[in-house]
Amino acid sequence: MQDSKSYKIFKTFNVICMACITFITLYPFIYMFAQSFSSAQAVINNRVHFLPVDFNLSAYTSIITESRFWNGYRNTLLFTTTGTFLGLFLTVSLAYPLSRDDFPGKDVILKFMVFTMFFSGGLIPLYLLVSNLGWIDTIWAIIVPNAIIIFNVLVMRTFFMGIPQALIDAGEIDGLNQLQILSHIVIPLSKPIIATIGLFIAVQIWNDWFSALIFLNMDDLYPVTLFLRNIVMGSQMTAASGQAVDSSAVTTLPQTLQAATIMLVTIPILAVYPFIQKYFVQGMMIGSIKG
Amino acid sequence: MHTLNTKNNFWRLKKYGLLYCLIILPIVYLVLFKYVPMYGIVLAFRQHYPGRAIFGEHWVGLKYFKMFLTDNTFWKVFKNTLLLSIFNLIISFPIPIIFALMLNEIKSKNSKKFIQTVSYLPRFFSTVVVVGIIKSLLSPSTGIVNEVIQFFTGDKILFLSEPGWFRTIYIFSDVWQFMGWNAILYIAALSGIDNQQYEAAMIDGANRWKQTIHITIPGIMPTIIICFTLAVGNMLMIGFEKVLLLYSPIIYSTADILQTFVFRMGIDQGHFSYSTAVGLFQSLISLVLLWTTNWFARKYTDYSLW
Amino acid sequence: MRKRNLLRLLTAILFFAVITPGVFANGQKEKTSDSEKITESKAISNKPIEFTMLYSDNASYGYKKDWITLQKMTELTNVTLKIQPVPEADYTTKRRIVLNSGNIPDIVSKTLASEVTDYAASGILLPINKYLDKMPNLSRTIKEFGLEDDLRNITEEDGNWYQLPVRVQKERIQNQTWLYRSDLLEKHNIEVPQTMEDVYTAAKKLKSIYPDSYPITNRFTADNVLSVIAPSFGTRAGWGLTSGGYWFDPEKKEWIFAPTSVEFKNLLQWFNKMLKEGLLDPEFATLDSNVYEQKIMTGKTFFMLDWLGNEKRYYATARKEDPDFTITAMLPPKGPDGDRGVRQANKFAMGWVIPARVANEKYFDRLLQFIDWFYTDDAVELFAWGVEGVTFKTDADGSKHYLPQVLSGEFDPTKETGTLNNVFNVVYDMDAYMDFQSKEAQAAFKEMAKENVVPAFDPKLLPTADEREEMKMIQSSLDNYFKQKTEEFIFGKESFSNWEAYEKECQNKGSAKLGEMINTIWKRQNNK
User: In total, how many domains does chain B have?
Assistant: First the structure.
C-alpha cells in the first residue's frame, strides 16, 4: 500500500505533534517523580529537573509508616471497586431501556433525568437525607449519592443506539427475552464503552474527597485522597477564599513529601488504564459478529 | 385507529416489562437522591438567616433575584463567566477530537497506547497541584516561560497580574489537563467503527484523508454531538477552585466569575438564599442552552438527546 | 398509571421523612449512665467517659490517637476525647455543614467569631457566660488575664457570649511579625531598619548587592502583607478591614473608611515605590507557599512578614547550603506618623463552641467540668510544655525549659506528642512561648509589648439580621472595587493623580451609606 506524499508529510507532522504532547503531559509527572526521591535542599535550590538528586527514600518512608495512609488506601480501594460495580450496573440499567426506540416513556424519563443535571437542592438537603437514611459514617454515603452520573448514562445510551437493530431483532426471533438480549447481545458488543464508563466512574470515586469530607466523621473510613488533599492543600485554600490565615496554617510540608504522596496516590489508578485499552481494539466487535 | 394504538401500546408495555423492572431501580435513585433534596431550592424564595431555620423564615418572592439582577457587579461577573465559557468551549471542545483522530493515525500499537496513557496523566493532578505548576511555569523570577520571553524581547510578563492573560491561562491549562481524558470517549467510539468499511473504501481507492472524512468522522459523529450538547449545557459550570486559586483582585475585571463572586459574598456568612437564587438563575440558563442545542441537533442532524 | 401513583407516594413519604422535626436533634446518644456522684478527685468521672470533638487537622502534625499528651489527659481526667479530624484546608466547609445540619459534636473546636454570630441567634449554641459559676478555672483565667474587653468583642446582641476563649494569652501578642536576615544585614553593615524609609534604604542596598533578589516578598495574597504593614501607617488594610473598609480608630473613637484616607494613600505609595524599584517582589500578590519558602531558603528575599517559629523550619534546609543563615525578629518599623504596628490580635486567637443540646444531656455537668479543666495549671503544663522528660525538664529553681532536641528542632513536640497544639493548647503559657524564641526575638517581643504595637480588633457591631444582610450587599461591591484598585495603585496601573475619581467611585459604591449604617448601629448599641 503506497501512501501519498501529502499523507507522508502529515505523518511526520503527526509524530512530532504527538511527541510534543507526550512531553508536556509527561514532564510534570517526571519532575514530581524525581522530586519525591530527592533531598529537600536539592528541590529548594532548583537542582532537580529530570532525575532525582541526592537520591533518598525519606519522603516515602515517612508516608508509608503512617497507619492512616494505609487505612485510607484500603478504604479508597473498597469504595472504588464497590462503587464502580454499583455505578456501572445502575448506568447500564438506565441507559439500555432508553436506547430502545420504541420503549414507552422514553422521552419523559430522559427529560426527567436531564433535568437533574442542572437543578439540585444544595448540600444541606442531601446531607439531611443521607443522615436520615442512617448512612453517615458508612460506605453507602460515599458510593450511593453519586452512583449515577447523567453524562455517563447519555454517552452509554448513544453507544447502545449504534448497535444494529437487526442484531436485536434476530435475538427476539430466537426467543430471547429483553434481559437476555441485553446480556447476550448488547453487553458483549459494548465492551469498549462499558470499559470507558467504568473507568470514568472509578476515577471519579478514586478522586472524590468531598463526599468523605461531608458524610464521614470518623477518620477510620477516610479515603486516601482526603489525606493527600490535606498534605498538598495546606492553607492555600484558606487564603484564596479571603479568610485570614492563622499561625497554625502557615507551616508547609516539604515539597518532596507532597510529591511522594501525589505519586503514591496517583500511580495505582493510572495503572488501570492499560488494562482497559485492550477493549479499544479497532473494529473489534461489530465486524466480527457480522462475519 | 384509536383502539389499535392502545393495543400497540399495551403490547409494547408487555414486551418491555422486564426492562421496566430494570429501570425502576435507577429511577428510584433519581427520585431519592436528585429530586427529594430539590426542596432546598425554596431557599431562593425565602428569607434565610444563617443558623436559623434551614429552609428560611418566610417567603420573600423574588427579592434575591431582584437583588442581583439590579446589581452592576453581578452583570460584570456574569459577562466574565459567559466569555470565559464561550472561549473555553470553542477551544477545549474540538481539541480532544482532533487529538483522537491524530492518535488514530499512529500505526504502532505500543506507541499509541503509550501516548494515550501519558496524555491523560494530567487529569490526575488535583487543582492545587495544577495551579502550582502554572504559577511556577509563569513566574517572572523562576519560570521557564518568562525566561524564553526575556530572551527574545528583554522583558518579563507578570502573567498572573495581567487581566488580559487570565482567560488564555485558564483555557490552555484546561486543555492541557483534560485533552487526553476527554479524548478517551472518542477513542472508544473510534474503536467501534467497522473495519470492513475501511477495507471497502481502500478497494475503492479512497485515500486516508477521504477515509477520515467519509468513514471516521461520521462514525464518531453521534458521540461528538452528544458531547457537544452536554458541553454547551455545562459550559457555565467553570472549575471554580482553579479560578479561586489563580485570581487576585487586580484581575477581577476578567477573572471574577459567578461562582467566585457568590463564594466571596457568602464566605463569612451562610448567605444561602442569595447563592441559591444565583445558582437557580444559572441552572435555568444552562437548561435553556442545552434545550436549544438539542433542538438544533435534532433538526439538522440524525442524533440528539431526545 | 399505578406506577406513577406509587412513585408519588414514595416521594411524599421520603419528603416527610426528611423534613420532620427531630431530625435536627439527632445528636449523640447518651454515653454513660449517670449513677455515680462526682467525687472530689480531680478526675471528671469515676467511670471513663467519652466526649466528641470536631477537630481541625493540620497535615504538618497530623492527628494521632496515641499522642502522649492525650493519654496523659485521660489519665488525669478519666475522659477520652473522641476526635473527628477534618483536614484543615476544608475545615470551614465541614464546620458549616455540621452547624447547619444540627448534627453537632460535644465540642466544635477552632471557630471564628464572625461565624459564631450567625449561629448564636438560632439558639443552637450554648451561651457560655451563663455557666461560668460551674467553670471556676475559666472564670479565674478571665480575671487574671484581663479578658473582659476581648470578651465584650464576642458578646452578641442578647448579651451572651457563645465562644470559649481558646489560645488565651496574658499580653496582646502577635506572632506574625517582621523578620529579617540578620546575618546578611550584619555582613553588609546595614542597620536594622527603624522606619519604613529605613526599610526602603536597606532594601535598596541589599538589591544592589544581590541584583536578582527581591528584598521583600509575601504569600497568601496581598491581604496578608497589607494587614501587617498598614497599622504602622496608622490605618488598616487587607484582612484588617472586615466591615467593608471601615475600621474603628480607638484614639478618635470613631469609624473611619480606610481605603480613601490619607494614611491609606501613604501606604499604597510606599508599596508602589518599593515595587517600582524592584524591592518588592512583583509576585507578592500571587505566590504560593512552596515558591515563597523556596525564595526565603535560597536567599532571594531578606525581609519577611512571617510567623515566628517558622524560621526553625527554614534553618533545617537552608543551613545545609549556608551555615550562617539566620532569621531574627525585629520591631515593626515606624510609619510616616511615627506609629509602629502589626496585624491586630485578640487576647484569644480562636474559640470552641458547645451545642445547646448538651444542656439536656446527663453528662452536661461533667462536660463543663472537663472543659473547665483545660484552664487549670495541669492542662496548661500538659499542652504548653508537654510531658516532663519527654519534651521538657524542670530546673533546680523550679523553672521549666524545653529539652535541647525540642529547641533545636530535631524533635517536633507538636507532631510527636500533641503538645503545643493549636486546638488543645487552650491557655498560652508565655514562659513556654518565650523559651522557644531566640534572645533577639525575646527582646523584640518585650519591646513590642512596651510600645504596645499590637492593635486590638475592632469592637463588635451588632446589626439586626436585616441590617446585616443589607450591609453585606454594600460591602461586597465596595470590597470588590477598592481591593481591585488597591492592587492597581500598587502595581502602577492606576495613577495616584486619579485618587479623587477613586474616592468618588467608592462613594458611588455606597461607602457613605455603609458608614451611616455603621454609625447608627454603633450609637444604638452604646446607648443600650
Answer: 2
